[in-house]
């Protein structure tokens, strides 16, 4: 192996290791900050976690494969406390890899609810006490319904 090949290999190896370990953490709160959902993006996986965490806990999370989500439609839809659940979350077009959420406390779906015509709709998540976080915009869209912290 010549020097050029060695340097190329080292650069490729370091880029691969650094890229695979990339982690982004987003905290989602209702407007009164009485609850928190931690969203951890790591490579092709996204973890939705109940509570505020800096790493993936042993329970109360769902692991998603997000590599096939259309970047323009990459959103997290949240409604806080209702009659049945502490929170209701939808990440459309994703695949559940593992779920360690308590289904009696939390509702999670991989598809938006449909309107009366059978068309997926975000309308439920545009109501009071709900929010939509857009990964494309990296903010709430619209800017209401909750609070966001990005690390």
Please characterize this protein's 3D structure:
Strands 7-4-3-2-1-11 form a 6-stranded antiparallel beta sheet, with no helix packed on it. The chain has a 5-stranded mixed beta sheet with strand order 8-6-5-9-10, with no helix packed on it. It has one domain (23-150). The protein is mainly β and 151 residues long. The protein has 1 helix and 11 strands, in the order αβββββββββββ. It is 12% helix and 36% strand. Mean pLDDT is 89; it is low at 7-19. It is globular and about 65 Å long.
Major sheet: arrangement of strands: 7-4-3-2-1-11
Compute the number of strand runs: 11
Poorly predicted ranges (pLDDT <50, ≥5 residues)? 7-19
Largest β sheet strand count, sense and barrel closure? 6 strands, antiparallel
- Report, as a whole number of angstroms, the end-to-end distance: 41 Å
Cα gyration radius (Å) = 18 Å
Q: Nutshell version of this structure?
A:
With 151 residues, the protein is mostly beta strands.
Topology (SSEs and partners):
Blueprint: H1 3-20, E1 23-29, E2 37-42, E3 45-50, E4 61-65, E5 75-80, E6 87-90, E7 95-99, E8 106-109, E9 130-134, E10 139-140, E11 147-150
Parallel strand pairs: 6-8
Antiparallel strand pairs: 1-2, 1-11, 2-3, 3-4, 4-7, 5-6, 5-9, 9-10
């Amino acid at each position: 192996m010549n020097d050029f090949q060695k340097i190329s290999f080292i650069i490729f190896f370091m880029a691969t290791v650094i890229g695979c370990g990339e982690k982004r953490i987003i905290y989602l709160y209702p407007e009164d900050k009485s609850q928190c959902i931690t969203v951890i993006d790591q490579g092709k996986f996204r973890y939705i976690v109940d509570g505020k965490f800096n790493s993936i806990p042993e329970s109360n999370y769902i692991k998603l494969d997000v590599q096939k989500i259309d970047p323009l439609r990459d959103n997290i839809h949240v409604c806080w406390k209702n009659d049945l659940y502490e929170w209701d979350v939808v990440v459309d077009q994703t695949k559940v890899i593992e779920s360690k959420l308590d289904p009696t406390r939390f509702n999670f779906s991989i598809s938006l609810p449909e309107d009366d015509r059978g068309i997926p709709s975000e309308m439920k998540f545009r109501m009071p006490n709900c929010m939509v976080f857009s990964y494309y915009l990296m903010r709430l869209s619209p800017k209401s319904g909750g609070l966001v912290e990005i690390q």
